[in-house]
Write a structure and sequence with these properties.
The chain is an alpha+beta fold and 451 residues long. The protein has 2 domains: 102-190, PDZ domain (Pdz3 Domain, Roll), CATH 2.30.42; 194-445, 2-enoyl-CoA Hydratase, Chain A, domain 1 (Alpha-Beta Complex), CATH 3.90.226. Helix content is 26%, strand content 24%. It has helices at 19-26, 32-58, 65-78, 89-99, 127-130, 152-159, 215-230, 249-257, 303-313, 415-424; strands spanning 7-10, 85-87, 102-105, 108-113, 116-122, 138-142, 145-146, 166-172, 180-185, 187-190, 194-199, 203-208, 236-240, 264-269, 277-280, 292-296, 318-321, 329-335, 342-351, 367-368, 382-383, 403-404. The strands form 5 sheets. Strands 1, 2, 14, 15, 18 and 19 form a 6-stranded mixed β-sheet that branches. Strands 4, 5, 6, 7, 8 and 9 form a 6-stranded antiparallel β-sheet that branches. Helix 8 packs parallel to helix 9 (303-313). It is globular.
């Protein structure tokens, strides 16, 4: 579900629901143009009411009023940008379960593209990953039902279901002449968001696959385990954020804070200047100043980009890989009352500590590393990115599309991982003219540019 590839700020923004009631009595103080705009809005609302009543009375079959209203709300929100949507009560409950890190389903991150379901990435060790589902696969059918015409939430709901039940997916894969039929058995998906291992005897490798409520605690646990296991010979940390679609804003902040002693981590800016919020680091570097390498690629989005951007701007880490996805917006979950679901509304853009918006541009790595891709996969190793999504929020300047998202399944073939290890070992080459990992801590207190 793509909303996992987005930054989610869980807050009950009830004030938004009062807007309609607040504006009307204040209209008496409006200028003529404002009064005209308000009157036009109410004319449009009357038009909606007229259409709704005509459908109820004249449609060939008696429609379900609740479904009519939900469809209208869903259409209104999806017309704003690719990340705003309406969640009915069930979808809202599912989202809450998912952000807690445990849910039922296939273990697949998806988004909607041209009316079809596109795979962002499978989650590690789930039915989807075990069946060989790949990033950029297009799902056209769920069992015998075409995806065309379904909303993203409806498609996701159909992919979920009781554990041990089967579902058949029809998949179009670039480079394959014929569609693939894949049967998956639903499982209880427990998302282990942080995985770790010792690399080359003296490097702590930590992969963060998503940002849910357990991510920061998982990071702290693995840092402690690896530092104890490796001991005094520990050279530094490689934090792998490749193909991490994002998650909770709060977790992105606390993960970033784990590596910083001070300074701004991220700012979020809404429509009005007074809505600007800045999040700053607290004293205490979890890694005790050890060098840090962060790996990113075209599948690193949202919360992943907040972490990479914060550590890059503070020169706390060297960013290695390919340009990230470029999702620089924040979605607020707004509950609509008991049994009424919630809005997932884009309410702000976020900015890195230097005041830079990465919306539709992405994080540019300090060192670009392109992987050697097998011939049979070369046609599908790029992720188009935020700038390619219809209706995305625009950014000033040149927007960027297309970035490699392939990660070799065997670590010995992983050029970005190897370069990260070389940097931590002090090995320099023509590709590694980049900031020293963990260097220039004073950068945390440099003035920040305003946008």
């Amino acid at each position: 579900m793509m909303r996992k590839t987005s930054v989610i700020l869980l807050s009950a923004a009830t004030g938004a629901a009062l807007t309609l009631f607040v504006t009307q009595p204040r209209a008496v103080f409006m200028g003529s143009s404002a009064r005209a705009a308000t009157a036009d809005t109410y004319r449009q609302l009357n038009l909606f009411g007229d259409v709704f009543e005509r459908v109820r009375s004249d449609y060939v079959e008696k429609p379900d009023d609740t479904k009519l209203i939900e469809s209208a709300i869903s259409g209104m929100l999806t017309g704003l940008d690719p990340h705003s949507s309406y969640m009915d009560a069930k979808s809202f409950r599912d989202m809450q379960v998912q952000t807690r890190g445990e849910f039922g389903g296939l273990g697949i991150e998806v988004t909607m593209e041209d009316g079809l379901i596109k795979v962002v990435s499978p989650i590690d060790d789930t039915p989807a990953s075990r069946a060989g589902i790949m990033a950029n696969d297009i799902i056209t059918n769920l069992d015998d039902e075409a995806v065309q015409g379904l909303t993203l939430n409806q498609a996701v709901e159909k992919m979920r279901g009781p554990v041990n039940t089967k579902i058949r997916l029809k998949i179009i894969r670039k480079g394959q002449d014929n569609p693939l039929d894949v049967t998956l058995v639903r499982d209880n998906i427990r998302v282990r968001s942080v995985r770790a291992r010792v690399e080359q005897d003296d490097i702590a490798y930590i992969r963060i696959t998503t940002f849910n409520e357990q991510t920061t605690e998982g990071l702290k646990r693995e840092v402690t385990n690896l530092s104890n296991q490796i001991g005094d010979k520990l050279k530094g940390y490689i934090i792998d954020l490749r193909n991490n679609p994002g998650g909770l804003l709060e977790e992105a902040v606390t993960v970033s804070d784990s590596f910083l002693e001070r300074g701004e981590i991220v700012s979020t800016r809404g429509r009005n200047a007074e809505e600007t919020q800045r999040r700053s680091a607290h004293a205490g570097d979890l890694t005790k100043g050890k060098p840090v390498i962060v790996l990113v690629n075209g599948g690193s989005a949202s919360a992943s980009e907040i972490v990479a951007g914060a550590l890059q701007d503070h020169k706390r880490a060297t960013i290695v890989g390919t340009r990230s996805f470029g999702k620089g917006s924040v979605q607020t979950i707004i509950p609509l009352g008991s049994g009424n679901g919630a809005l997932r509304l884009t309410t702000a853009r976020y900015y890195t500590p230097s005041g830079k918006s990465i919306q539709a541009k992405g994080i540019v790595p300090d060192i670009e590393v392109l992987q050697d891709v097998p011939d049979e996969l070369k046609a599908r190793t790029d992720t188009k990115g935020e700038a390619s999504l219809r209706g995305h929020l625009k950014n000033d300047g040149d927007e960027k599309t297309g970035s490699q998202s392939y990660v070799p399944p065997d670590a010995k073939d992983d050029k970005a991982l190897k370069l990260g290890a070389d940097l931590l070992h002090g090995i320099k080459n023509s590709a590694s003219a980049a900031p020293t990992p963990g260097g220039d801590k004073a950068a945390a207190d440099k003035p920040k540019a305003a946008n």
